[in-house]
Every structure is written in C-alpha cells, then in structure tokens.
Design goal:
This protein has one domain. It is mostly helical. The chain has twelve helices and no strands. The longest helix is centred in the middle third of the chain and has 32 residues.
Amino acid sequence: MSTAAAIATAIAVVGMAYGSAASAAGLPPWLVVLAAALVLSASSELVFVGVVASGGLLWIAVGAGLLVSLRNAVYGLSASAFLPDQRAPRLLWTHLVNDESVAVATAPQHPSRRFAAFRTVGIALLVAWPLGAAIGVGVGYVLPDPGQLGLDAAFPAVFVAIILAAVTRRTAAPAVAGATLATAAAPFVAAGLAPVLGLFGLLTSVRRRGDHA
C-alpha cells in the first residue's frame, strides 16, 4: 500500500506537469482530464502534448503517442499471467496495464499476490493521474511554465519507487540499468520518452540469461 501511495503521489505530480503543459499548448481543459482518464499513459500523453506545444501537426502528435504506447503490448504479455480468466473482467482490468502497475505486480513471489499488487497500484494511478492533470490545468492558468516548479523531478521519483517495489536479486541489474538510463536521459529527450528508453535495461537481463545458457 505504501508503495502504491508513493508511486501515485509521484505520478500525480507528473500529471500536474502534463496538465499545465497541455493547458499552455491550448488544449481544452475537459479534453486534458478526459484523455488522462481514458488513455492513462503518462509517457504517451506527454509526448503528444510535447509535439502539439512545439507546433507539430496533430496527426504526427497522435502517431508519436501511439508509437510510445506500443510498449504496453509487452507489459500486456506479462499481465496476462495474473489477470482474471473471465473475458469481461479481464478486458476491464487491462485498462490499468502500464509501466508502474505491471512492474510492481511482477515483484511478489507468490502468483496469487500479483493481481492484488497490480490492482492496488492500477487503481491508485487511475485516480492520481487524472487528478494531477486537473490540478495542472488550474496551475497552467497561473504559471504556464511547469519547469519553474521543478515538476520534471517527479520522473526520477517514479523510477526509484518502482525499483524499491520490484527489485529482487534476479531483477536488480536490469532494474538499476533501466532506471539509470531513463533518469540520465530525462533532461535531454522529449517529455515522456525517458521511461521508454529505460526499457533498454531489459537487455541486461537478456545478456545475463545468455551467459548462463
């Protein structure tokens, strides 16, 4: 529960940055909050807003967001192992599949605890992300530049929270490698791309398995 609260708090702060940036880019407040609830993908939405704010075409922004969202297909493969077997509940819970919920869910050793961890973090983010976006929209009317608040520091906080929840002896190397790469890249890449780059930390795991083969 404490892990879910820590991740949700960090995500809410990131949501404030997203809401503020989206408001400054001219997106309607209702669309910003609705997208946060329906898309529920921080990286994708930040990339979308970043393209729009820089003057890019709408179809390019949508394409960039969808491209970043492809990573959820990988997370979906992992989540399929612990999601309910019934069709309707399974489709409902897949909406909560994202970086944080799946990462925390893979930490428990007992399979029966994985869905509970996934559900707790997923619901927390379903509340925190749209709420942070709504607050960010309000902040955007007063302070259009979210960088003045240092909200971008929330991304490293998310990585640290995930590591603390999901790291084990077997996953320590890829977790640390991914978080280090994402945190180092955050100041130099477009908003939302740092977590995607962090996925390259998985290569550490692949290489270690190859060494033992």
